[in-house]
Amino acid sequence: MLTDRSIHVVEDDQAVRESLAFLLAAAGFAARTYETAEAFLAALPEIEGGCVITDVRMPGTDGMELLQRLSRLAPHLPVIVITGHGDIQLAVQAMKLGAVDFLEKPFDDESILAAVRSASRRQQEAGAEASRRTEAKDLLASLSSRERQVLDGLVAGLPNKTIAHDLGISPRTVEVYRANVMKKMQANSLSDLVRTALLAGALVEADRS
Q1: Which of 112, 109, 122 is CA-nearest to residue 54?
Q2: Residue 112 in contact with residue 53, Cβ under 8 Å?
């Protein structure tokens, strides 16, 4: 398994490819290099983390097409685009397609390392967010159907009396369900509850209902 410190360099210029690999390795990253986008895509099924550095102009599948394919196949991988002098417009388009950064050749060592570190931090933050979202969904799934109805009322900002009227139960019963919801969702306050419900997608689902 490749770690989050794996950097995948997709570059047809051998000198640039080897130079980047040396620089990244010296900075503590595990650099893997690919001469073509096709070679990288062939290895993609075994890649679980890290980030990608790709040139824009390459024979065969170019950097723009690679970026488009990665947005579908591996959206969790941040992509840094490196460009030639006349490719700035393409680089801007790449950013619109999801690239996290672009650097114009020739770039200095610290610029590429700073871009890689920033991309790595983004991926780690995204991983933590995904973990929190999964936990929130598990908490949401623990609710009974009635508790879920009370939750939907709470996150919609409805008072207990209104929720009770809508569900045909007493306000006191709503209070009991509310306490159960707060406990099961591990929320210490209404703001905690709303935040967890948002992570779990409950607010979106409630809006559609």
Answers
A1: 112
A2: yes
- Calculate the alpha carbon distances from 196 to 41, 53, 58, 156 in Å: 36, 35, 45, 14
Rounded to the nearest 10°, the torsion over CA 203, 190, 183, 138 is 30
Which structure tokens are listed for 194?
A: 């709303």
Q: 6-10 and 30-34: which strand pairing?
A: parallel
Averaged confidence pLDDT in the chain:
86
Query: What's the DSSP call for residue 46?
Result: G
User: Cα separation of 75 and 130, whole Å?
Assistant: 13
- pLDDT surpassing 50 at residue 14: yes
> What is the reported pTM?
0.63
Task: Give SS3 for 10.
Answer: strand
User: Quick check: 126 and 75 in contact, CB under 8 A?
Assistant: no
Backbone angles phi, psi at 199, to 5 degrees: -60, -35
| CA 64 – CA 70 distance, rounded (Å) | 10
Q: At what angle do helices 160-167 and 145-155 cross, to 10 degrees?
A: 140
Which residue type occupies 91?
Answer: A
pLDDT digits (tens, 9 = 90+) for 139-159: 999 999 999 999 999 888 889
Phi, psi (rounded to 5 degrees) for 8: -105, 110
d(CA 103, CA 87): 10
